[in-house]
Write a structure and sequence with these properties.
Blueprint lengths: L2 E4 L3 E8 L2 E7 L1 H11 L4 E8 L2 H13 L6 E4 L6
Parallel strand pairs: 1-4, 4-5
Antiparallel strand pairs: 2-3
Length: about 80
């Protein structure tokens, strides 16, 4: 059975000190997809990201978590939320 999660994944920037920052990701829909993947399911995340370096990094991290991105569109010139 396929599980499709619709929503947005957001870039989180925190702990900015001395011109350095910690980058992460979050959002209710994305967190749901990640926890489903961690429990052995194969969720598909339906969303859109840009074609910038942040979006590329987010895709790689979500893929490592086991979240399917076949239905995550790429918006030319776009950036993550």
């Amino acid at each position: 059975m396929s599980i499709f999660i619709f929503g947005e994944g957001m870039l989180e920037i925190s702990d900015i000190r001395d011109a350095t920052a910690r980058f992460g990701y979050g959002g209710d829909a994305l967190n749901t997809a990640i926890y489903l993947a961690r429990s052995g399911r194969k969720p598909e995340f339906v969303s859109a990201l840009g074609d910038d370096a942040f979006s590329t990094s987010l895709r790689a991290k979500w893929n490592e978590e086991g979240v399917g991105l076949d239905h995550c569109l790429t918006v030319e010139g776009g950036k993550p939320g």
